[in-house]
Design brief:
This protein has a 5-stranded mixed sheet with strand order 3-2-1-4-5, sandwiched between helices. By secondary structure, it is an alpha/beta fold. The chain is built from 9 helices and 5 strands, in the order αββαβααββααααα. About 40% of the residues lie in helices and about 10% in strands. It has helices spanning about 20-30, 75-90, 100-105, 110-120, 150-155, 155-180, 185-190, 195-205, 215-225; strands at about 35-40, 50-55, 95-100, 130-135, 145-150. The longest helix has 24 residues, at about 155-180. It is elongated. It folds into 2 domains: about 20-175, 2-Layer Sandwich (Nucleotidyltransferase, domain 5), CATH 3.30.420; about 175-225, no CATH class. Helix 2 (about 75-90) crosses helix 6, helix 3 packs across helix 4 and helix 8 packs parallel to helix 9.
Length: about 250
C-alpha cells in the first residue's frame, strides 16, 4: 500500500515567511520606528586605500527583500555587484562617504570612522527614525540607535550598507591598482597579505598607504635607509579610543 504524507499546514505563504535577516527591522517597525537605517564601513583594517562608510534604508515588505542580500564579506565579488545594483534600485535612501588616506593619517582611524558613519546617516532622506550600526555605537546621531554585534549578518539594512561600502571601496581599489600595479591592490584591496607585505618591503609605501600602520611605517623607514634617505624618528599615535586593529600604531 502506498503511503502519502499529509499536506503541510501553513498559515503564511513561503514567500511571505519572515527571514531572520529582516526580523530586527520588522520588530522595530512594530514599535513605531517606520524608517530604520543601517550603517557600516569598509576598509577599517586595511593598511592602504580609503575608508568608506555607508548607510541605507530598505523599504518594508517584499520590495525590501533584496535577492541574495548578506554580509558583504560572505559574498563573492560578482554576487556583491548584483546585490549592490538591487540595493541601489530598491532602497528608500542610501548614502556613501569616502575618507581619504591623508585624513585618516591626520586625524586617526576612530575619529574619522565615527564621523564618516555619522555623515552617512545624516545624508539620508528621509531621515531615519532608528539607526542600527555594526559592532559599536556611533555617538552624536540625532536619532535613537543600537550597536549590533555582527550587525551585517543579522540586520538587512546593515548588510545592505556593508555591500554599498564594500563595492564602492573595491571599485576604488581597482582604480588604485591601475596607478600602482606593483602592489596588487586589485587582489588584496589594501589589506595585509603576504603579497602586499612583499611589495611594501620591495618598493616602500605609495601615497595611498596609511602611515599609522606599523608595517607601513617600518617599510617606509627600511626603504628610505636603502636609498639613503632620512628615516623617521618616531611613529604617529592614534587616539586610542577603540581596540587596536592588528598592524596599526596605537
Amino acid at each position: 500500500m502506498a503511503l502519502r504524507s499529509a499536506p503541510s499546514r501553513r498559515t503564511v505563504a513561503d514567500e511571505d515567511r519572515p527571514d531572520s535577516l529582516w526580523d530586527m527591522e520588522r520588530s522595530l517597525r512594530r514599535r513605531g520606528f517606520q524608517v530604520v537605517a543601517g550603517a557600516d564601513e569598509a576598509g577599517r583594517g586595511a593598511c592602504a586605500g580609503p575608508l568608506v562608510a555607508a548607510s541605507c534604508v530598505l523599504p518594508s515588505g517584499r520590495r525590501g527583500r533584496v535577492p541574495g542580500l548578506a554580509d558583504s564579506k560572505l559574498l563573492t565579488a560578482a554576487a556583491r555587484e548584483r546585490v549592490y545594483a538591487e540595493v541601489v534600485d530598491r532602497a528608500l535612501s542610501w548614502s556613501v562617504v569616502v575618507i581619504p588616506v591623508g585624513e585618516l593619517d591626520a586625524r586617526g582611524m576612530h575619529v574619522t570612522n565615527i564621523e564618516a558613519l555619522r555623515r552617512a546617516v545624516s545624508a539620508l532622506d528621509p531621515s531615519p527614525d532608528y539607526v542600527l550600526t555594526d559592532g559599536f555605537p556611533v555617538p552624536g546621531l540625532t536619532r535613537p540607535g543600537l550597536a549590533v554585534w555582527k550587525g551585517d549578518r543579522v540586520a538587512a539594512c546593515v548588510a545592505a550598507a556593508s555591500v554599498l561600502a564594500k563595492v564602492t571601496r573595491d571599485r576604488m581599489m581597482l582604480e588604485l591598482h591601475e596607478r600602482w600595479p606593483e602592489y596588487d591592490f586589485a587582489g588584496h584591496k589594501g589589506y595585509i597579505t603576504d603579497v602586499h607585505s612583499a611589495a611594501l618591503n620591495r618598493y616602500g609605501p605609495c601615497p595611498e598607504h596609511r602611515m599609522r600602520f606599523v608595517n607601513v611605517a617600518r617599510a617606509r623607514d627600511a626603504y628610505a635607509a636603502r636609498v639613503g634617505g632620512l628615516t623617521s624618528t618616531g611613529g604617529m599615535v592614534d587616539d586610542g579610543l577603540m581596540s587596536p586593529v592588528p598592524g596599526e600604531v596605537r
